[in-house]
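chain below, 475 aa
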Amino acid sequence: MGNPKAFLKIGRKEAGYRPVHDRVMDYGEVEQTLNMEDRMLQASRCMECGVPFCHWACPLGNVIPEWQDLLYRGKWQEAYRVLESTNNFPEFTGRVCPALCEKSCVLNLQHEPLTTRENEAAITEHAFNEGFARAYPPKTRTGLTVAIVGSGPAGLAAADMLNRVGHSVTVYEKDEYIGGLLRLGIPDFKLNKEIVERRLALLRAEGIEFVANTEVGKDISAEDLLAKFNAVCLATGAGQARDLPIEGRNLTGIYFALDFLKQQNRVIAGQNIQTDNLISAKGKKVLVIGGGDTGSDCVGTSIRQRAESVTQIEILPQPPENENPATPWPQYPNILKTSSSHFEGCKRQWGLASKRFVGNNGKLTAVEVAEVEWITDQNGKFTMIETGNTQLIEADIVFLCMGFTSPVHAGLLNDLGVQYDARGNVKTVRPFESSVAKVFVAGDVTNGASLVVRAIDSGRRAAAEINKQFANVIP
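prediction:
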């Protein structure tokens, strides 16, 4: 602990966002950066607690106090080495992670936690700029082969860890770009795609083979995959979006969130989308149904497309601000979260259930919603009741952002014959191993939709289990 009094004398300082009037005119990243001196001062605030709750809260088990101290001392390269020892892609988590570590930071008791996420991103950017984030191909190969199906954070992490020990790894991706939702699902204003491509270039240089535009189960059969590789790791994500099958669902103007976000990322990449297939919010009254991060991404994208208005509704009640007695520190707090997109111009409403879509000549014009209240019984179970109050929200276009129910079963998963759990996720019979021999699983396909940081952790752990299976056959 280099400066034991820093947390008393130095306040939390965030980099903040670019001005609203500036950032809504483009898709550049909205977050700004601090200079190196300020960033090192922010790192000095770490108290190196005897019980590091930040380490406890991080799914990856990042040894945060250690690299905070190294950053404070200006040892950027050493800080990066400690950081990457537990996190394969700190440039991703440093941008899109909800920072579970910060919520559990002891300084968060005074609402002044370390800027851990920003510090993580700063260390990684410095590493790439200075050239010590570079490829380290394995010196020898084991001769064993592994196929990773899905190139999101779980698949990439598993591929990275398996390649490091010398296995030959091939990653299959059904879309035209490698990166899964990192590449097509997250808007550029949160994660610039050059950041993704930069990391992929290192992974390629280290010997990982990527095969895009190839849907396993369709372009390559499950049988052929099992015959070709010593092991297969499924990292296809939870791709079955939750639908809203209410009256009027067949009206024109109702879309799943990812269809909208993926298309916009393709447009930014330079693709030409047929006019008939274009999902555009320009000049329209937009209604976003769902209050999570995906909904926030649809808000920000709609605003950049020059929507006339944007409203976001959530069926749950509005969370309290700053503190919630139901989720005390060091738990992750269930409090009101306001994203950069919300600051750009969005009306938010809570406690509303969608009842029916209203239209004219087959086109959406409004959504009828009902006010709901949530009550708890003596066992603490939540029950939703309608108050009887309803309203019509005008909308030309609706984005359904209500999460995902399970992985897509049709195709590869059913062809493999894997078992499913009660929620429809791929069931494991041993840690990270499906019911089918030599078929492993990582990320949302088995855990359900979750965070990027949890997906990376799952990919790392799945790779470790595959290595255990290989222990007796590695030359």
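The radius of gyration is 23 Å. The chain is about 35% helix and 15% strand.
thats it, cya
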